[in-house]
Amino acid sequence: MHATRPVSCVTTVPDRCRVCFTCVRECPAKAIRIENGQAEVMPERCIACGNCVRVCSQEAKQFCSASDAVSGLIRSGQKVAACLAPSFPAEFPGISHQRVVGMLRKLGFHLVTEVAFGADLVASRYRKLISEHPDQRFIATTCPAVYRYVELYFPDAIDNLAPIVSPMVATARALRAEHGADLRVVFIGPCVAKKMEADDDSVAREIQSVLTFHSLKKMLRDQGIRANNTTDSEFDPPFGGLGALFPLCGGMLQAADIREDLLKNEVVTVDGLSAFTSSISEFSHNTLDARLLEILACNGCIMGPGMTSEEPHFKRRSRVSRYVQLRRSEQRDAVHERDLKRFIDLDLSRTFEPNDQRPPRAPETEISEILLRLGKREYSDELNCGACGYDTCREHAVAIHLGLAEDEMCLPYIIDRLKVTIKDLSDSHAQLATTQDQLMHSEKLASMGQLAAGVAHELNNPLGVVLMYSHLLLDELDTQSPVYDDLKMIAEQAQRSKKIVANLLDFARENKALIEEINIENLIRHCVDIARLPEGVSLHLDFAHSAPHCELDPDQMIQVFTNLIQNAVSAMNGQGALHIRTQDTPSTMHISIQDTGCGIPPEHRQKIFQPFFTTKKIGKGTGLGLAVSYGIVKMHRGDIAVSSNTNPEIAPTGTAFTIKLPRRHAQPPTSNPHKPQPVPP
After folding, report:
1. Which of 669, 592, 614 is nearest to 503 (CA)?
2. N or C: lower Cβ tally within 10 Å for the chain?
3. What is the DSSP letter of 240?
4. Beta 639-645 vs 654-662: how paired, if at all?
5. Within 10 A of 510 (CB to CB), how many other CB atoms are there?
6. Do 240 and 272 fall into the same domain?
7. For residue 676, pLDDT beyond 50
8. 502 and 566 share a domain?
9. How many Cβ atoms sit within 10 Å of the Cβ of residue 273?
């Protein structure tokens, strides 16, 4: 048993592949595998139709050129024949066939013949096959991509393949019968699949090399051979007849004098990649009742991937038809018939062997898992958009199961992942910005704490002396003394200065956080009692937490809550409403303290946690309360934020401070993170 050897006719240029999946979408055999973001051709599944090369806009898919091999044959001194495919008039518009032959001879070929004659021989064999086997059904094997597709994907239809060689092989056998077995044969045409056919074990060594028109023109350019510097020459016999119509859809039937009767539907012609696969499927399942199915994978060989002409389909068709008319007008019918009779006994048979590449049926559970992974939870989620290169989401899932595709080929899946990534990046950016602001604020607090510690220590002793002597003088002076009031003012301001210094020391002092499990509700009520709200301020407590317990330092948090409550009362000038709310999550506790005061102007909100910044009147505040509170909250690994409104037309005015604290501390913090570093001596 012989089998078609997997031969790679197409290569991939990795740097050019943009992973657009066009080749996957347009490959009739689904022989493209996406691996690590690269589309590569699988030789064992490829039918060498060349469509991936045609549709790739980036030229990432390229034919394997035989130019070097052909040049080596010509230089070897052996007798080499060029067999020119009958589609050549469409490839060389405006150039006579004599000039084309002359260019090939100038390139170094000893013989230049028409494959059209081999097509005539094949046509006669099809006519005989149909007449001698009226009860059998056949698929024409003139197109190698078609029979290769049957061998790989419809092996049960192998017996339906017509056991007749292609015109290329028929021409090679006729030439060797005429010129000897040592003749080297090079096929030149528009078909990439011919490269695969030439390596087929069933017809091995019949064709030494295959050139596409694209490769031929490159060889002509490289050697400076042009139509205007070449003399005319004629084809070597035997000459072709109606076989020159083979590159046109239905051309084989006309050459074989087989009529396609639409009423009887015994003969059906199909062309084009989208139609040929479905026609084989229908033929294999007996839903297409035809005795002969003629298929051309391309829209006729004149549209083959090895063509370089950019003319439209019917223009190319017209050029081939006119060439056939020209050749028939040369009155060579008698010679042609004589040549056909000379080769009437030439063996044009061949065999085909299945090479089953049908994938095993994928387990439904695995397909469902893949679809779920791609976000296809319900049938309605299967958009079947085709962006991945497969007709349906299910086909894509099967390809992933087989290792032919990747998850990232699904556009909706990638869009969803991109949205998640963008959101994560946005959250990360926001978190980074917040952290950066906190870091800058922490560094500023640390620097100011360092300065405050130095200033406080330097001022504390002189202030103590001033305060002590001012009180001594007050005790000695009569209250009616003219300097008594002045001395009293000195004592009061010295006392105030000492209080400010004490606050500075508190701000700069290293504080240990003594973590305890505290009932946050009781702690807030205690802070409210300490603050002693004026009669004009109403209190509204809204404890919406699910569990009241939280790990924190009660003394330090009392300082924080008391500062915020007193600030709120001060902002309302003794009249308003104080709202204290709590909410929680399994890992955090949120406390909000909101007043109905005048609000904080936007330009001040970025400064409120800075030491010595205050909006109170002179003498009413030190500007350290919020700075100390900020440090305590951060020491608890929490966060404090402010929101405020000063425009009554938008919403009621007021300010809300929200504190977020962790419920649990894995390792209790030991000191204030904003503690100033020791001043260098």
Report:
1. 614
2. C
3. P
4. antiparallel
5. 10
6. yes
7. no
8. no
9. 19
Question: In which element (H, E) is residue 293 found?
Answer: strand 292-296
β-strand partners of 517: 551
Q: Give me the pLDDT at residue 467, please.
A: 82
Number of folded domains in the chain?
A: 4
In a domain, 2, yes or no: no
Q: CA-CA distance, 272 to 300, in Å (whole number)?
A: 8
Q: How many residues does the chain have?
A: 681
Does 191 share its domain with 72? Answer: yes
Do 484 and 569 fall within a single domain? no
The 10 Å Cβ neighbour count of residue 579 is: 18
Q: How far is CA 430 from CA 417, 423, 434, in A?
A: 20, 10, 6
Owner of token pair 């021409």 = 171
For residue 535, CA distances in Å to 345, 532, 556, 575, 655 come to 123, 9, 27, 8, 20
Question: SS3 sequence, 484-517?
Answer: HHHHHHHHHHHHHHHHHHHHHHHHHCCCCCCCEE
Same structural domain for residues 256 and 371? no
Domain stop point among 392, 409, 426: 409
| Beta strands at 267-271 and 292-296: parallel, antiparallel or unpaired | parallel
DSSP state at residue 141:
-
Q: Which residues fall within 8 angstroms of residue 402, CB to CB, at 6 or more apart?
A: 359, 362
**End-to-end Cα distance, the chain:** 96
Residue 517: CA count within 13 A, CB half-sphere: 5
How far is it, in rounded angstroms, from Cα 594 to Cα 353? Answer: 85
Is the distance from CB of 634 to CB of 669 less than 8 angstroms? no
Q: Is omega for the bond preceding 238 within 30 degrees of 0, making it cis?
A: yes
| Domain co-membership, 102 together with 166 | yes
> Among 480, 508, 536, where does a domain finish?
508
| Each residue's pLDDT tens digit, 256-301 | 988 877 557 789 999 988 888 999 999 999 888 889 999 999 989 9
Are residues 525 and 484 part of one domain?
no
pLDDT in the model for residue 505: 64
* The model scores a pTM over 0.70: no
Torsion of CA 108, 111, 115, 121, to 10 degrees: -160
Is the pLDDT score of 521 beyond 90?
yes
∠ CA 64-67-69, rounded to 5° = 95
Round the CA-based radius of gyration of the chain to a whole number and report it: 46
Which residue's entry shows tokens 């301020």? 537
Contact yes or no for 656/594 (Cβ under 8 A): yes
What is the SS3 assignment for 175? helix
* pLDDT at residue 14, rounded to an integer: 87
- The three state secondary structure string of 443-470 is HHHHHHHHHHHHHHHHHHHHHHHHHHHH
**Which structural domain, as residue segments, surrounds residue 190?**
10-342
Q: Is 620 exposed, middle or buried (0-12, 13-18, 19+ CB in 10 A)?
A: exposed
Q: Are 580 and 529 in contact (CB under 8 A)?
A: no
The set of residues, in sequence order, having a beta carbon less than 8 Å from that of 485 and lying 6+ positions away, is: none
> How many percent of the chain have pLDDT more than 70?
90
Q: What angle separates helix 273-284 from helix 144-153, to the nearest 10 degrees?
A: 50
Do 84 and 143 fall within a single domain? Answer: yes
Q: Judging by beta carbons within 10 Å of its beta carbon (0-12, 13-18, 19+), is residue 597 exposed, middle or buried?
A: buried
Dihedral, 469, 475, 476, 481 alpha carbons, nearest 10: 100
Angle, vertex CA 143, rays to CA 119 and CA 328, nearest 5:
25
Strands 292-296 and 138-139, bridge-based pairing: parallel
Segment among 160-174, 496-510, 511-525 with least mean pLDDT: 496-510
Mean pLDDT in residue range 418-422: 93
Most confident of the following: 7-11, 81-85, 609-613: 81-85
